[in-house]
Amino acid sequence: QVQLVESGGGLVQAGGSLRLSCSCAASGSAFIASAMDWYRQAPGKQRELVATISSAGSIDYVDSVKGRFIISRDNAKKTVYLQMNSLKPEDTAVYFCRRRLGTYDYWGQGTQVTVSS
Predict the structure, then answer these.
(1) Contact of 40 with 93, CB cutoff 8 Å
(2) Is-contact 106 90, C-beta < 8 A?
(3) pLDDT tens digits, residue range 66-88?
(4) HSE (CB half, 13 Å, CA atoms) of 21?
(5) 73 φ, ψ to 5°?
(6) Is the CB of residue 37 less than 8 Å from the CB of residue 48?
(7) What is the pLDDT of residue 7?
(8) Which of 47, 87, 103, 117 is spaced 20 to 30 A from 15 at the CA atom?
(9) What is the pLDDT of residue 67?
């Protein structure tokens, strides 16, 4: 069973916005208890953590996206979002969703975000 499905990627001009969604197949209680992350991987680079939101709602971002990206979660919909504003060409990457709960660790298949200059 596919646990996480990302959507919302695409091609956008620099300065534009996109909203990524990650839908989770876990039970509602499992989703609520999970920490959810967004990662990205650009060609030739290591995967990096972009944003994280804990089960309690604590949030953190990598410095390069602070003030531009917003992570949020809707527990009723079992979905986590990444609102990306003021996009830059260096934000171009495949974006992945991750769910963490104890020893459980699931990744989505990724969605491509391309920002043109």
Answers:
(1) yes
(2) no
(3) 999 999 999 999 999 999 999 99
(4) 9
(5) -140, 145
(6) no
(7) 97
(8) 47
(9) 98
For residue 78, what are the contacts with CB-CB under 8 A and spacing of at least 6? 23, 24, 25, 26, 28, 31
> 26-32: which pairs have CB atoms within 8 A and are 24 or more residues apart?
26/78, 26/99, 28/75, 28/76, 28/78, 30/101, 30/104, 31/75, 31/78, 31/99, 32/75
User: Cα angle vertex 4, ends 42, 23, to 5°?
Assistant: 105
Question: Do 17 and 82 form a contact (C-beta atoms < 8 A)?
Answer: no
Name the pLDDT band for 115 (thresholds 50, 70, 90).
very high
Place of tokens 């969703």: 97
List, for residues 39-48, the tens digit of each pLDDT value.
Answer: 999 999 999 9
Residues in the chain: 117
